[in-house]
Amino acid sequence: MHSSVPGPHELLGQPAMTPLAVADPGSLIQSVDWVAIAPPLIAALAALAVLLADLFLPAARKKVLGWATAGGLALALIALLPLARGNTRSTFCVQNVTGATDNAACSYVADHFALVFQLLALGGALITALISIHTVDEEELPGGEYWFLLLSSATGAALLPAARDLATLIVALEVVSLPAFALVALRRDGRGAEAALKFFLSSVTATAVMLLGVSFVYAATGSLHLTAIADGLAHVPAQLKPLAEAGAALTLVGFAFKVAAVPFHFWLPDTYTGSPVPIAGYLSVVSKAAGLAGLALVTTIAFHQYGHTWGIALGVLAALTMTVGNVGALRQRADTRHSAVRLLAWSSISQAGYLLVPLAAAGAARSTAPIGATVAYALIYAVVNLGAFAVVAAVARTAPAARIDDFRGLFTHRRWTALGLAFFLLCLGGLPPGVVGLFGKVVVFRSAVDAGLGWLAVTMAVNVVVALYYYLAWTAKLFAPAGTEAQQQRRTPAGLTVTLALTASAAVVLSVAPQLVLQVVSGTLF
Is 320 within 8 Å of 350 (Cβ atoms)? Predict the structure, then answer.
């Protein structure tokens, strides 16, 4: 654990902030770097292809759409390879009068930061697709619409971390969210409609607040490009400073809704519980990662000038989020009639608090170096959390309510599934043999200590200990004597089998060699 997180330019790939050159209107026509935009573009084309294929395929053959979706996402992941092995690429840039391109004026930049989050988004969507193949069939969900919406949301999640202006950021964030509303509502009962409505109303509120903040920032700085905003805030006239500060605060509040940070978390437990299980897992990882990427970009680049202020604010949000999330999860343990998905929902809130800690450290230290800890922890969390949701999806096939008590004695009749869930829970708790979870928490903890946020590090340490109770209690239930009602044995679908194998293997490999996570973040594996 002696590796260090990458520095600001290594991770974000941003040049020193310089004023933008005046654009020549005659030079705005430019070529598009198709290689740079290939990952989100392939996902978008796959979405259209699936939607069109659904019109012509007979009902008996529509199962192939799920595997086609997985194939499209796999191709999008492969498209990351040429980007990872080369230099930072950018496109949709403003050109100056000499024809040279200023990277600071580009709306799309494929740097290490973007590529790692695209790996997380597209990989998480791929795992979600594999988990969903049997769910779409058994719950009689409309297959064509389901796969189209999943691919559309994944497209937005892949676009967002490469966005370098506020307009593109907001559009990408809405492309993530709008299909997600419909995915939640596809569940054929009242809970799906209720969950989608809560999700929709909270997200619309967040978007409205964010747009108001963006309008204030634009009025104060005259630009939507992140680096230009940073330069503008450094030289904003005194009479516009209150407007700029209010705009920055409102923009951050909007992203806090998307990350489900306390006190903007109220929609999350009911939304996860009312969603199809694979979609709950998708929201907990991919949707959250998209909001986190946007939050990291606007704070460390656009609002760098206000680093100390938003650093303290994010530190308070992080402490509240991890504490409230753990308290909510403990309440699920007090009543075993609650579903496992609801417990994972509250756990997801607490994990969001840990993810916010390095962002707070970046503000306190006035450096982007701690963001590497957030990216590393997000990768670890994505693998183990999606694995846990895959096990819940497998148990829900015989126990649709997926109550916590339904996992009692799981080791007796599903040995490998129980062992997989136990390992994932230990990783989430940060206990051996889930070394990768411990490694992620140590990296996050160290970022707070190095930034001088001792109070936040202590709060995190206390919450990690508290969280061990419900993780260990659930783990112990897996190996307890089976209840009187034996669960019906059903063969595990191929998609779930592949998912469990992939996530468990990745978690084991990272537990043996946790330094691989930081190598991916820093780009040395590429």
Answer: no
Beta bridge partners of 95: 101
Q: What is the pTM of this model?
A: 0.88
The whole-angstrom distance between residue 489's C-alpha and the CA centroid of its chain comes to 34
Q: Specify the long-range contacts of residues 231-235, CB closer than 8 Å, at least 24 apart.
A: 231/17, 231/18, 231/19, 231/20, 233/302, 233/303, 233/305, 233/306, 234/305
Ramachandran sector of residue 6 (left: φ over 0; alpha: ψ -120 to 50; beta: rest): beta
Distance CA 136, CA 277 (A): 11
> C-alpha 220: how far from its chain's center?
31
Q: Which two tokens stand for residue 472?
A: 């260990």
Encoded tokens for 82: 């040429």
454-478 vs 435-450: helix axis angle to the nearest 10?
A: 170
How many C-beta atoms surround the C-beta of residue 390 within 10 A? 31
Peptide bond into 433 cis (omega under 30): yes
**How many residues belong to the chain?**
526
CB atoms within 10 A of CB 244: 23
Cβ neighbours, 10 Å, residue 334? 8
Beta bridge partners of 163: 108
The per-residue pLDDT for 484 is 52
- What are the pLDDT digits (tens) for 443-500? 899 989 988 889 999 999 999 999 999 999 899 988 888 755 545 566 777 788 888 9
Contact 267/194 with Cβ under 8 angstroms? no
Contacts of 490 (CB under 8 A, 6+ apart): 397, 398
Token pair of 497 as six digits? 């089998």
3-state secondary structure of 198: helix
Given a contact cutoff of 8 angstroms between Cβ atoms, the answer to whether 350 and 91 are in contact is no
Return the ∠ at Cα 303 (arms to 380 and 14), rounded to 5°: 65
Residue 295 to residue 303: CA distance in whole angstroms: 10
- In 96-158, where do the E strands start and end? 101-110
The answer to whether 453 and 315 are in contact (CB under 8 A) is yes
